[in-house]
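Lab meeting, item 3. Inverse folding demo.
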């Protein structure tokens, strides 16, 4: 049996991965991330996946044993 926290983290990782893939597909759109400087864009893209996975696992309930 897979714990709920693991399932939630896996789904969160998939969703963020899909969003980043979509961002890469439309990266030529200058309005995508607004007027953010390059370092901020890199920081957001680098920190989004682990942060969302952590929050998904943290918010999911424990599975009873």
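The presenter then showed the designed sequence:
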């Amino acid at each position: 049996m897979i714990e709920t926290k693991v399932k939630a983290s896996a789904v969160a990782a998939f969703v963020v991965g899909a969003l980043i893939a979509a961002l890469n597909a439309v990266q030529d759109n200058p309005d995508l991330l607004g007027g953010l400087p390059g370092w901020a864009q890199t920081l957001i893209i680098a920190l989004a996946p682990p942060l969302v996975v952590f929050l998904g696992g943290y918010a999911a309930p424990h599975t009873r044993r």
